[in-house]
Design brief:
Strand 6, helix 5 (152-158) and strand 7 form a beta-alpha-beta unit. This protein starts with a strand and ends with a helix. It is built from 15 helices and 13 strands. The relative contact order is 0.12. The strands form two sheets. It has a seven-stranded parallel sheet with strand order 3-2-1-4-5-6-7, with helices on both faces. Strands 10-9-8-11-12-13 form a six-stranded parallel sheet, sandwiched between helices. The protein has helices spanning 16-30, 68-89, 99-108, 131-140, 152-158, 202-210, 213-216, 230-239, 255-261, 276-283, 297-300, 315-327, 329-339, 342-345, 348-364; strands at residues 4-9, 34-39, 55-58, 93-97, 116-119, 146-149, 167-169, 190-193, 221-224, 246-250, 264-267, 288-291, 308-310. By secondary structure, it is of the alpha/beta class. 41% of the residues lie in helices and 15% in strands. It has two domains: 4-173 and 347-364, Rossmann fold; 190-345, 3-Layer(aba) Sandwich (Rossmann fold), CATH 3.40.50.
C-alpha cells in the first residue's frame, strides 16, 4: 500500500546515518511511496543529494545558546517549528534518525497521535550524549511506535527502555555498487574510511601500520574522511615517522573506487553502530580487518572466513593481523572472494522488506 512517509535527520552532511536516510528515502520512493526528507540544518550543509522525486524540508533550526534560558526558549521554539513543518506535510508516519533528533521529534509531536519510528544509528551503550539527553531519551522513547536498532546486541539494551514488541533490528543495506572481483588489487594500499574522530580509532591504526610489514615494505595507508582529529592524526603520523606514507584526502564521493584497488580494508573503531564503510568494502571484495567492537562488525564478519576480527583498541593484535595478510596473498584472495556474500545477506530488497513490514504494522496493527 502506498504511504506518505516523512524521514527526519539533523542534516544531510557526510555521515553514515545521513547517507542511510537519503538511500532509504530513494528506496521507498522506488517502491511507490510518497516520501520527503526533513532536516534541522539548512540545505547548504548537504553532502548527499536527493532524487528529485523526494520532497525536501530544510528548517535551518540548528543554533547555539549562550544561557540556560536561551536554551529552554530555543528548544520550545524549535519544537513548535518542527511540529508545524511535520503537520503541514501531513505524513502517515515519521521515521527519525539519530538520538538527539529522535528526542526532538518525539517531544515536538507529543500528543499529536502521529506515529513516530525512531532509529538508533550507533551503539548507545558507548556513545556519550550527556546526562540530559540520556534522561530525555529514557522519558521520550516509550512514546515511539517502534525503536529500530541495527544489531541484536543493541536490541538487548533497547528492551530496557521500550517494550520488546516495539523493538526491531534492521541492518543497513548494500547500496548500488560496481561489480566486485578480487584480482589481487592494483596497489599495496591499506584503506580506511570514516569520520576523523576518536570513535573511529584511526590513531590505533596509525600505530599498528607503523609497526607492520606494510609500512616496512613502503606501502601506503589511505584514510578517507574528515573530522576534528585531522591535525592530531597528522601529528601522530609525523611522530611515528610514517607521514610520507599516510594520505588523508578528506571526504570523497566515490569511496568504492578506492576499495576496488586497495590491498586490505581496515576498520579500527572503538565502537560502531553498523558501519557502512565495512559493509561496502566487503561488497567490493576487499579482504577486511575489523575491530570486534560491541556492535556491527561481528554481524558482517565471520573471523577467518570472510575477514579477520581483532580485539578493539589492541594495537598489537591489529598489527599482527596486518602482517598476516601481508604475508599471505592466498588468504587475502580467499577472504575477499568470500566477503562479497554480504551483497546478498544485506541486499536492499531484504532490508527494505523489514522497513515496509514495520511501517504496515505501525499503521494497521497498533
Amino acid at each position: 500500500m502506498k504511504r506518505r512517509i516523512l524521514l527526519s535527520v539533523s542534516s544531510l552532511s557526510a555521515g553514515g546515518a545521513e547517507r542511510t536516510t537519503a538511500e532509504l528515502a530513494l528506496a521507498l520512493v522506488e517502491r511507490g511511496h510518497e516520501v520527503a526528507v526533513m532536516t534541522l540544518a539548512s540545505p547548504e550543509k548537504d553532502h548527499y543529494r536527493l532524487d528529485p522525486r523526494i520532497g525536501r524540508i530544510a528548517l535551518d533550526l540548528i543554533w547555539n545558546s549562550s544561557s540556560l534560558w536561551q536554551s529552554v526558549a530555543g528548544n520550545i521554539r524549535r519544537s513548535r517549528m518542527i511540529r508545524g513543518a511535520v503537520t503541514s506535510y501531513r505524513p502517515d508516519l515519521v521515521i527519525s534518525f539519530i538520538q538527539q533528533n529522535n528526542v526532538r521529534m518525539l517531544a515536538a509531536l507529543a500528543g499529536s497521535r502521529l506515529p513516530v519510528i525512531v532509529s538508533e544509528r550507533i551503539d548507545p551503550r558507548r556513545h556519550a550524549v550527556g546526562r540530559a539527553w540520556r534522561l530525555a531519551r529514557r522519558l521520550l522513547y516509550p512514546m515511539a511506535a517502534r525503536l529500530v536498532v541495527q544489531t541484536e546486541s543493541v536490541a538487548r539494551w533497547a528492551v530496557g527502555i521500550v517494550p520488546g514488541r516495539r523493538v526491531r533490528v534492521v541492518p543497513n543495506f548494500v547500496r548500488e555498487l560496481p561489480p566486485a572481483a578480487y584480482t589481487g588489487r592494483a596497489t599495496d594500499e591499506l584503506l580506511a574510511v570514516g569520520r576523523l574522530d576518536h570513535q573511529k580509532g584511526f590513531d590505533l591504526l596509525l600505530r599498528a601500520f607503523a609497526a607492520s610489514e606494510f609500512a616496512r615494505a613502503g606501502a601506503r595507508l589511505v584514510i578517507l574522511g574528515e573530522g576534528p582529529e585531522r591535525r592530531a592524526l597528522e601529528t601522530l603520523a609525523q611522530e611515528l615517522k610514517i607521514a610520507e606514507r599516510v594520505l588523508l584526502p578528506g571526504v570523497v564521493r566515490d569511496p568504492e573506487t578506492w576499495m576496488a584497488r586497495c590491498a586490505v580494508f581496515v576498520l579500527p573503531s572503538r565502537y560502531e553502530g553498523f558501519p557502512n564503510a565495512l559493509l561496502e568494502a566487503m561488497a567490493m571484495g576487499c579482504p577486511v580487518i575489523a575491530a570486534d567492537c560491541g556492535s556491527g562488525p561481528r554481524e558482517m564478519v565471520q573471523d577467518g572466513e570472510n575477514g579477520l576480527l581483532v580485539p578493539p583498541e589492541d594495537v598489537s593484535a591489529l598489527a599482527q593481523a596486518l602482517d598476516r595478510l601481508w604475508r599471505d596473498a592466498a588468504l587475502r584472495a580467499r577472504l575477499g572472494a568470500a566477503a562479497v556474500e554480504v551483497r546478498e545477506r544485506f541486499s536492499k530488497e531484504r532490508v527494505l522488506a523489514l522497513w515496509e513490514q514495520m511501517i504496515e504494522e505501525v499503521l494497521t496493527d497498533d
